[in-house]
Amino acid sequence: AFSNNMAPRCLNQSSPCGARSSRLHSRRSRTRTLASASPLSAQDLEHLKSASALAVQTLGETQPHPNAACILVNADGSVASSAHLRANGSPSPEVRAVKLAGGRSALEGGTAYLNLEPGQCHGDDAPIQALLAARVSRVVIGIRHPMKHFRGEATEALRRAGVNVDVVDTINTDDADVLAVLDRCRAANAALACRAETGKPLGVLKYAMTLDGKIAASSGHAAWVSCEAARARVYQMRAESDAVVVGGNTIRRDNPRLTTRRESGHRPLRVVLSRSMNLPIHDADYNIWNTSEAPTLVMTQRGAADEGTLDVLRSKYGVEVVEFDILTADVASNYLARRGCLQVLWESGGNLSAPAISEQAVHKVVAFVAPKIVGGPTDATVEQPAAPTPVGDLGNIFMTQAIELKSARYEQVGTDMCVTGYLNRAYDGPDFMETATPSSQTATSSYDGFDGVVSNQPMMCDLPHLDLPRSMVESWGLLPGTQFGDAAAMTALCETDEASNDGGGEKRSAPVHFYKAWMEHGALTNFSPHEICVHDADKVSDMDPSTTWPSVEHFYQASKFDVRQGTPGSEEAEEIRASIGAAPSPEEAARIGRTYERTRPDLVYQDWTTRKVPVMEAAIRAKFTQHNAPRRALLNTGRRRLVEDSVVDSYWGGGRDRGGLNHLGRLLMELREELRMQESVQRADVLR
Q1: Residue 82 main-chain phi, psi, to 5 deg
Q2: Could you read off the pLDDT of 7-23 as tens digits, one per residue?
Q3: CA within 20 to 30 Å of 334's CA: 44, 201, 279, 484, which one?
Q4: Beta-bridge partners for 298
């Protein structure tokens, strides 16, 4: 179904066929003609190397996110503490490391080593303030932040405060030891660099083939091409990815599980691309339909299946189905980008891998070559098909058109040889930062390539008369009324930033889209690391109002479960609440809450549909009134429309086409207007 009918653009036609592809540092000399001596000591390099290793220590335990670590070293050279970013929305490694070291003034005159420049995505400069409070005199940073809107901000803030800052990827040197450490720092965040430049997740094509280039025998049998050690490596690669993508042929032929084979940790989304929907939908024995192991998403084209078939997938198996007018590898990659994916593992056969390469949905290749020869017919027929190869037709007719891997590496894994490299640009290479474009700033908020552009204007604002005395959401019948106030609600709904355009009319400022905590407006998400104490928690969720919760998401997920005395299962519900509260990150709290909501619906409040609105309202009010930084981040959005940019949540977010109810964005706009009114009153009191 995914055969390439059009000759694709060759990604590397101009490369000389004899060019070397090993990772020799001499390849960098062309960009470092004026190299100078490095200001870094051997001790500096060792600590940076350790920070890079620490940053990726827990890969696979949580969903992919910026991999950052901090190592604090005392003035006498001894290591005081170290920490890494555990998950999306966790406290920064700088904050954690300083806390572990003893807090304020514990490291006076010491040095902090960071593999990645801090990104101030939570609306505050907590990493900077932590380092300043610890009174370090020097900070050594491996690489600048790949995201344009964060790059250089933390470095300049530290320098303004009088801290000596060395950023390794700005040092002009050919020192092999420095470049080796720099490679480690870049490799730790290659996916983030790809996202920053292309707006897409890093696409990794993985396959295993025999020595004669076959991924299966001519009969289709493929268990197993690779050795056990190679398969274990693949399980780890899955755990390190947001999603695993295959085509319909792979499902029908191999019946794969596509799981990490682990009891705990991150479980990537399993994605099946099928234009025709020729899938074994009515056979429950296929592993892909077992959504208790991992979630499954089927992407298809509109009209490929009737509603009854789609209902089987959704209702019987719990499979998510997304339809597109035209489904391509590029469309799938862009859609996964909007879901916040940083890395996607393509485990597809040749019919899908070829267009994925030509459409640049794939950026990196990991190939396991087994010391086996399976053979097969050279002239394939219907009766005797050829043994399949890992990549289909790319339209190349000359060997000089072959795509040569960049930054190629070779490693023995068990009895197999693993070859790894990049197709077009090495995102762990030396020059991506110099050529990266700011597309990442809009990649998750401007993609309109699905079914046409959907208006982002607030509903009903063009009505000539608004005689609505009650809250915005109550007036429109979208939500129960809130406590933010009638005036705030109405202003939040209908306000616009007015500015003159060329025609002398009015135009609306671009909406603010927020989703992942590591993105530009991460302070607005439920996943930002801001503790809250909900003073009226007993009213909205039957909880102790004095309890402190690590984040809004922790509180929201815990509030789902009915702990009222006398309610069946209340003790179990209390245990679930406790496990959610103890979760080390908002992501893991959400995973626990959603899992039990699906598997133990009897423990969830029967009226949760109406309860969840005041719960969310109370939680975000606590966050934005108890923490100055996110409050300022909210107020700094002016009067722009706020959109929670989840493509899978049309209730709290904007949904796939941004036409969803966006209740979280609406509640934040109401709260923002209330806070603005409060500040106006306070300023007026001061002037009096």
Answers
A1: -155, 155
A2: 333 334 333 333 333 44
A3: 279
A4: 272, 321
Q: Which residues are catalytic?
A: 94
Q: Where are the beta strands (DSSP E) in 355-433?
A: 364-369, 406-413, 416-422
Q: What would the two tokens of residue 45 be?
A: 């390099």
Tokens of 298: 């089927």
**d(C-alpha 659, C-alpha 651), whole Å:** 10
> Cβ(250)–Cβ(348) under 8 Å?
yes
620-673 pLDDT tens trace: 999 999 999 899 999 999 999 999 999 989 999 998 887 889 999 999 999 999
pTM score, two decimals? Answer: 0.82
Distance from the Cα of residue 409 to its chain's centroid? 26
Tell whether the model's pLDDT for residue 478 goes beyond 90: no
Question: In this structure, which long-range contacts are made by residues 677-682, counting pairs with CB atoms below 8 Å and at least 24 apart in sequence?
Answer: 677/485, 677/487, 677/488, 679/635
Match 């996202």 to its residue by tokens. Answer: 195
Measured distance CA(155)–CA(355) in Å, rounded: 41
Q: What is the CA radius of gyration of the chain?
A: 27
Is residue 339 within 8 Å of residue 393, measured between CB atoms? no
CB 560 within 8 A of CB 593: yes
Name residue 648's amino acid: V
Q: Which two tokens stand for residue 556?
A: 């929201």
Counting residues of the chain whose pLDDT is more than 70, the rounded percentage is 81
User: Where do we find the tokens 């993105």?
Assistant: 519
- How big is the chain, counted in residues? 688
Q: What is the DSSP string of 65-128?
A: ----EEEEE-TTS-EEEEEE--STTPPPHHHHHHHHHTSTTTTTT-EEEEEE----TTSS-HHH
What is the C-alpha separation between 260 and 274, in angstroms, rounded? Answer: 23
Lowest mean pLDDT among 35-49, 106-120, 264-278: 35-49
Of 88, 99, 188, the closest CA to residue 142 belongs to 188
